[in-house]
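Key result, reporting period 2: structure in, sequence out.
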């Protein structure tokens, strides 16, 4: 299994409970795909540098995960479909 860092931004115009539910959905998706969430951080609401889909603020989340390439590809596919996620970034970490 490879190590990845995943960052995603959720719309801030949603209810607080819905924001947390969206984040938990993607956290549990990694586990469902036989991956392991090593660390999960909620960085809170931040002002975006430029409007994304007419949104000016977003909730930032960062996860460190261990998963297979196929699991990450499926995660990427599902997070692209979700309209509540403004942006996401998946980075493979180098082995140290």
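The corresponding designed sequence is given below.
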């Amino acid at each position: 299994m490879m190590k990845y860092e995943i960052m995603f931004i959720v719309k801030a115009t949603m209810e607080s409970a819905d924001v947390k539910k969206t984040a938990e959905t993607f956290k549990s998706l990694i586990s469902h795909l036989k991956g392991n969430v090593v660390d999960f951080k909620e960085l809170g609401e931040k002002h975006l540098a430029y409007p994304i889909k007419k949104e000016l603020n977003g909730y930032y989340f960062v996860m460190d995960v261990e998963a297979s390439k196929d699991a990450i590809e499926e995660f990427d596919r599902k997070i692209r479909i979700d309209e509540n996620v403004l942006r996401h970034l998946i980075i493979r970490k180098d082995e140290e």
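The chain has a mean pLDDT of 94. Strands lie at 2-11, 36-52, 55-67, 85-92. This case is discussed further under Risks and Mitigation.
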